[in-house]
UniProtKB/TrEMBL annotation:
Protein name (record): Ty3-gypsy retrotransposon protein
Species the sequence originates in: Cucumis melo var. makuwa (Oriental melon)
Positions of the UniProt region annotated as Disordered: 54-89
Protein backbone atom coordinates (compact mmCIF):
# COMPACT_ATOMS: atom_id res chain seq x y z
CA UNK A 1 0.00 0.00 0.00
CA UNK A 2 1.09 3.43 -0.80
CA UNK A 3 1.17 6.03 2.03
CA UNK A 4 -1.16 8.98 1.73
CA UNK A 5 0.71 12.01 0.52
CA UNK A 6 -0.58 15.53 0.59
CA UNK A 7 0.05 17.87 -2.27
CA UNK A 8 -0.55 20.94 -0.14
CA UNK A 9 1.45 21.57 3.06
CA UNK A 10 -1.52 23.43 4.56
CA UNK A 11 -3.62 20.24 4.66
CA UNK A 12 -1.57 18.88 7.55
CA UNK A 13 -1.87 22.11 9.55
CA UNK A 14 -5.64 22.18 8.95
CA UNK A 15 -5.91 18.59 10.20
CA UNK A 16 -3.91 19.47 13.32
CA UNK A 17 -6.07 22.55 13.89
CA UNK A 18 -9.18 20.36 13.58
CA UNK A 19 -7.82 17.92 16.17
CA UNK A 20 -6.91 20.80 18.48
CA UNK A 21 -10.38 22.33 18.07
CA UNK A 22 -12.02 18.99 18.88
CA UNK A 23 -9.86 18.62 21.99
CA UNK A 24 -10.77 22.15 23.05
CA UNK A 25 -14.46 21.40 22.55
CA UNK A 26 -14.20 18.23 24.64
CA UNK A 27 -12.47 20.20 27.41
CA UNK A 28 -15.09 22.97 27.25
CA UNK A 29 -17.87 20.39 27.45
CA UNK A 30 -16.21 18.83 30.51
CA UNK A 31 -15.91 22.23 32.22
CA UNK A 32 -19.49 23.19 31.40
CA UNK A 33 -20.76 19.89 32.81
CA UNK A 34 -18.75 20.53 35.97
CA UNK A 35 -20.18 24.04 36.31
CA UNK A 36 -23.71 22.76 35.76
CA UNK A 37 -23.16 20.26 38.58
CA UNK A 38 -21.89 23.04 40.87
CA UNK A 39 -24.88 25.23 40.05
CA UNK A 40 -27.26 22.33 40.71
CA UNK A 41 -25.63 21.73 44.11
CA UNK A 42 -25.93 25.44 44.94
CA UNK A 43 -29.60 25.36 43.93
CA UNK A 44 -30.18 22.51 46.39
CA UNK A 45 -28.37 24.46 49.13
CA UNK A 46 -30.45 27.56 48.40
CA UNK A 47 -33.66 25.55 48.46
CA UNK A 48 -32.71 24.02 51.83
CA UNK A 49 -31.86 27.44 53.29
CA UNK A 50 -35.12 28.93 52.02
CA UNK A 51 -37.02 26.06 53.62
CA UNK A 52 -35.21 26.73 56.92
CA UNK A 53 -36.18 30.40 56.71
CA UNK A 54 -39.82 29.53 55.98
CA UNK A 55 -39.86 27.08 58.89
CA UNK A 56 -38.47 29.70 61.27
CA UNK A 57 -40.87 32.36 60.03
CA UNK A 58 -43.79 29.97 60.48
CA UNK A 59 -42.62 29.04 63.98
CA UNK A 60 -42.16 32.70 64.94
CA UNK A 61 -45.55 33.76 63.62
CA UNK A 62 -47.35 30.96 65.48
CA UNK A 63 -45.82 31.80 68.86
CA UNK A 64 -48.10 33.41 71.42
CA UNK A 65 -46.88 36.00 73.92
CA UNK A 66 -46.40 34.95 77.54
CA UNK A 67 -47.94 37.19 80.18
CA UNK A 68 -45.97 37.42 83.43
CA UNK A 69 -47.30 38.96 86.61
CA UNK A 70 -44.94 41.32 88.37
CA UNK A 71 -44.73 41.71 92.13
CA UNK A 72 -46.65 45.05 91.92
CA UNK A 73 -49.60 43.47 90.14
CA UNK A 74 -48.77 44.82 86.68
CA UNK A 75 -48.69 42.49 83.74
CA UNK A 76 -45.61 42.36 81.53
CA UNK A 77 -45.87 40.86 78.07
CA UNK A 78 -42.81 38.96 77.01
CA UNK A 79 -42.36 37.52 73.55
CA UNK A 80 -41.66 33.80 73.60
CA UNK A 81 -39.07 33.71 70.83
CA UNK A 82 -35.91 31.64 70.48
CA UNK A 83 -32.64 33.43 69.95
CA UNK A 84 -32.41 34.80 66.47
CA UNK A 85 -29.73 33.34 64.26
CA UNK A 86 -28.80 35.02 61.04
CA UNK A 87 -29.06 32.91 57.94
CA UNK A 88 -27.24 33.97 54.82
CA UNK A 89 -28.43 32.67 51.50
CA UNK A 90 -25.56 32.11 49.09
CA UNK A 91 -26.64 32.54 45.52
CA UNK A 92 -25.00 33.27 42.25
CA UNK A 93 -26.18 36.01 39.97
CA UNK A 94 -26.45 35.34 36.28
CA UNK A 95 -23.43 37.58 35.69
CA UNK A 96 -21.35 35.65 38.24
CA UNK A 97 -22.29 32.38 36.58
CA UNK A 98 -21.39 33.75 33.15
CA UNK A 99 -18.05 34.97 34.51
CA UNK A 100 -17.34 31.54 36.02
CA UNK A 101 -18.06 29.83 32.71
CA UNK A 102 -15.96 32.34 30.77
CA UNK A 103 -13.03 32.02 33.17
CA UNK A 104 -13.13 28.23 33.16
CA UNK A 105 -13.20 28.15 29.37
CA UNK A 106 -10.18 30.46 29.21
CA UNK A 107 -8.28 28.33 31.74
Amino acid sequence: MRPITYTHPNVMSVMMADITAKAAMVEMERKINFLMKVVEERDHEITALREQIRTRETAESSQTPIVKATDKGKNVVQENQPQQESVSVASLSVQQLQDMITNSIRA
